Here is the input.
Amino acid sequence: MPLLKLDDHELEVPKGTKILDAALKVGIEIPHYCYHPALSIAGSCRMCLVEVEGMPKLQTACSTPVRELPPEKKIDGRYDMVVHTTTGKVTAARKLVLEFLLLNHPLDCPVCDQAGECLLQDYSFKYGEAHSRFVEDKRVQPGEELGSGVVINLNRCILCTRCVRFNREITGTGELFVENRGYHNKIAVFDGKPLDNPLAGNVADICPVGALLLKDYIHSTRVWHLSHTPSVCTECSAGCSITVDAANDRIYRIVSRENEQANGHFICDTGRYAFHTYAEGVLTEPLMRAKRGWKALSWDLAYRTVADQIDRHGGKGAVRALASPTFPNESSFLLGQLMQRLSDKRNVALIPVKREADQTFPAGFKISGDKGGNRRGAEDMIGKLAAGFKSFFKDEEGVLLVMDADGRAEVTADLKGLFESSSFKVVLASNESNITAMADLVLPVAGPFEREGTVTNDQGLVQWLQLALERKGQARPAWLVLAELDRLLTGEASLYTCAGDVTWKINRAISAYSQATRFKLGLKGQLLTGTG
Amino acid sequence: MATVLRTYEPRFWDRFYIPALLQGLFITLGRIFKRKDTIQYPESKHVPPEGYRGLHRLNRHEDGRIKCVACEMCATACPAQCISIESSPAPWEEGEERYPVKFEIDLLRCIYCGFCEIACPKDAIDLTEIYDFSDYTRDSLVIDEDGLLKVGDITQTGNVYQRHNRGEKVELPLAR
Here is the structure.
């Protein structure tokens, strides 16, 4: 393998590795705009220029491969390539490149939404010149709407073509292209063919400047006010890693977080905008169906009502439960345990959830059609019971304990029959939905972004779901509600102080999850034992 | 321990107290013929020097649009965290595409350091010479966007206290 000398670092890299990749690996910062690890190399921004010994001109680090020299020609008798990233020639070149990139840039940072996470700002501060020598009028182009909730501000664009390459390589739709030549270059869509694909929102994420923006987020806040919580999307069973950007107890946007094992660098628009649906109809207190509408209860009374109703309607043996494939493993696990203690019968099933066709994109990005984001986890926790419940749930009286599927539950004829036959329906839900409409008692639990715990995607990747928001009103985490119910009904449940305690229990109870501990999961998650 | 080196010992004449009394009365007598330093507030008001940092204002463009683009530089720079801003896409076609829908300053929390006007990239926020704003409740001392714009409108045409002392009728915002 060639030996590369990169500033003071010496590293052996496979032949053909690009200098920029090697630099990123050892933590040397080479500024770059057009390079993106998931996309092909363009070499158009010229920001990553470095000095390579033996080459007369500066080279772009993103596109220059590391070469291998024959033994007698090695530099200093050892190195195949010697690269300098901090010499005067390089810093001077960076200054000039930045000045070029900023020639027509409006410098409207106070108005621009990218300010605070803008690579132009960062690199200008670090490597740039404080003044521009450009005295002519700046080019002014009107902004345009590209479709799929994406708008472009052409003045700010530096033509790195990340968005163009994204739409060609990742989605394969290729709506965006560079129109005109030279000074009149601009990112555009073809007439009558707007940006229209389920991954369109990603172009705003990968835009290194404030040119591509989401209409959903535009001018709503400043990025430095946002708290960035690394979490997991549970909208489908692909389980992409996301970062939840929230402030003032409100989610402003969701951006993708790199995770090679879960769809790489990107997320789909469904997951990106899903948080809006959970802001409506939030349940904040236990509700009991009254003669007219609903009556609010205290938690104590709600628990006692559940116990009373179980006694009244067939006792513990007649309790049946529906677990949710959208809740974290912890809740499903505790529900499974509770139901096991209540009777020996098969009394847990999964609530049916909408299912669509899988969508797979050329670069391998997959949107799962299974909208129960944690189905695999739920099945692991309570056993394989997803194949419908008609066979073992007879139409008989008894209390039905249901975990809502965050509004994605499908009210099938079977489910309807089950609800109608059950004498008392308890629903654990975070928002009003088609399931809570059929309930007798609604227990408010933490919403999708207020939950903590582990989720398992369809590939068997267990990730930690971190809570990004405070719970609303009196809502409690689902695992806590189930643990408290368990203590009240059977008196056998362990004492749990946090979701991590339940995770610990899962690690010990289920062999496949023995390695999926809170600390081993980290930010990227952990594959189940025996998979991958 | 402090060491006493010398203490005041009244001399013979001092023990009569008359000379000190007369000395004081002569100072008073002398003051009668000098310029008066007392200001008859609120009929006339003290004019603070240039650069005084008092009540905030928000400025407008010539066409009446607010200059502020809600970049929140002031709120970020504010050491007392007394500024809260909510931004939104602007309703007008021409000009800045962003504007504040809510701009509130908690005047009781503000320490009048002037960082906000230094931080402002659009010259939208200033501290004015107005110092006499007071009220009975905390709520009424949270000034909103309209109030700040009104302060801006009043203070654009010269120092309000000079105008007040000249006899112009200046309606101060917040002042009772």
In short: The first helix of chain A runs from residue 19 to 26. The two ends of chain A are 29 Å apart (CA to CA).
